[in-house]
Amino acid sequence: MFEAADTRHAPWRLIRFDDKRRARLDVISHILETIPYKKIAREKVKLPKRSGKGRYDDQASLRGMKFVEERS
């Protein structure tokens, strides 16, 4: 079956699965190596300053509550 199905267009690869973790990493590595990669030049992203509008105030729910006195 392998001889009939293994073509230049769609080659077959066998993986040794004695160690499943290593085999999975080998498969992922092989797939990534077959994908052509070209580094793309990108513009530097400039983020605007954060808005304080709608910011969560974690102390708001504690205002007016009675606390035990802290001792050092």
The chain-level structural class is mainly alpha
Topology as a string of helices (H) and strands (E): HH
The geometry reads as elongated
- Biggest β-sheet: count, sense, barrel? none
How many helices? 2
As a percent range, the share of strand residues is under 5%
Q: Which stretches are low in confidence, meaning pLDDT under 50 for 5 or more residues running?
A: none
Using only C-alpha atoms, the radius of gyration works out to 29 Å
Average pLDDT metric: 86
Estimated helix fraction? 25-40%
* N- and C-termini, Cα separation: 78 Å
Please count the beta strands (DSSP E, at least 2 residues each): 0
Notable features of this structure?
2 helices
How would you describe this protein?
- 26% of the residues lie in helices and 0% in strands.
- It is elongated, with a radius of gyration of 29 Å.
- The chain is an all-alpha fold and 72 residues long.
